[in-house]
Amino acid sequence: MSCLTRKLQHNLARYLKRHDTVLEQNPETVRNTLVEKGLCPSDVTTEQMRSVMKLAEQ
Prior knowledge:
Elements lengths: L5 H13 L1 H4 L3 H10 L9 H12 L1
Helix pairs in contact: 1-4, 3-4
C-alpha cells in the first residue's frame, strides 16, 4: 500500500469499526465517502480500501 501508512490504515480501520453501517457498503462507495469527509487521501485505490475493510472486520 504505497500511499497508506500503517498508522493511517489502522486509523481508517478503527473508524470503519466504529461505523458498522459503512462496512456493509462496497469498497468504492466507502472510499468515496471517506475521501469526501477528508479522512482518506484521494489516491487510495479500491483494492487498498478493500484491504482496510478486511482489517476492520477482524
